[in-house]
Design goal:
This protein has 50 residues and is mainly alpha-helical. It has 2 helices and 2 strands; from the N terminus they run αββα. It has a two-stranded antiparallel ribbon. The protein is globular. The two termini are 16 Å apart.
Length: 50
């Protein structure tokens, strides 16, 4: 995600085995435009893996 879409995420496995198939995101105080771009990038990645 970071190299392709410039979106940083953390693998869920760091939060335990039950989170292995998830990613963790933090939105902090980012502007709405950046949040929407990041969400779109994540959605595109998910769609491409189907």
């Amino acid at each position: 995600m970071l190299s392709r879409h410039k979106v940083a995420v953390v693998p869920g496995i760091g939060y335990g085995g039950t989170c292995d198939r998830f990613i963790r995101i933090a939105v902090g105080a980012e502007p709405e435009e950046r949040l929407l771009r990041g969400i779109d990038a994540i959605a595109s990645m998910i769609a491409a893996t189907r």
